[in-house]
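Thanks for the sequence, V.! I ran Shikimate kinase right away. Repeating your input here for the record:
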Amino acid sequence: MPAMELAGNFFLVGLMGAGKTTVGRTLARHTGKTFYDSDHEIERRTGVKITTIFDIEGEESFRAREKQIIAELCQMQDIVLATGGGAILAPENRQVLASHGTVIYLRAQIDDILARTKHDKSRPLLQTANPRAKLEQLYQQRDPLYMEIADVVMDTSCQNVNTLVQRLEQRLLTQQP
Ligand SMILES: Nc1ncnc2c1ncn2[C@@H]1O[C@H](COP(=O)(O)OP(=O)(O)O)[C@@H](O)[C@H]1O
Ligand SMILES: O=C(O)C1=C[C@@H](OP(=O)(O)O)[C@@H](O)[C@H](O)C1
Ligand SMILES: [Mg+2]
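Predicted structure:
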């Protein structure tokens, strides 16, 4: 069965740098669904970058914006949504994601994440003296929350995004009702 026949919404969760935005965009293209990214949506609506929101308003205000956007996007049909890594912190977000689509947890190795985000300044939580320690702490805190709502857990150590998405589509086909 071609991937085009995959029904419903797909929501990607996982740590920063796991590949949610990249994999989500490719999955949407393959399945003919509309792609959204909650961070991009926040940036589009506010007209500023995520880093600026963290700098000026702080993380709490960012989380409030994120919650609003996720609640709205989850009402849509046939979308692929890449969430931000911390979206699952709010119980309301976990509930709305779990009940409106198939949740895909992209589970990445810390070493891979560090390599992928090394030169990137767009993630405020990683602008620290010790990003490895920060990622380890986030993993401890968040892995149980990702697992709580995941329908599919996907290892992302595969370095070829197209191959990764093909494997993911095979997994999703086996989940269809
Ligand atoms: N499977 C992969 N293998 C190698 N690089 C990847 C993979 N997935 C994503 N990347 C790269 O890692 C970086 C972070 O990916 P991104 O999609 O922004 O992650 P997220 O949205 O989860 O934070 C990007 O530069 C992207 O090209
Ligand atoms: O993990 C987090 O708390 C965050 C992840 C980021 O998204 P990505 O996971 O797409 O990098 C972005 O929402 C913000 O910087 C906070
Ligand atoms: Mg992203």
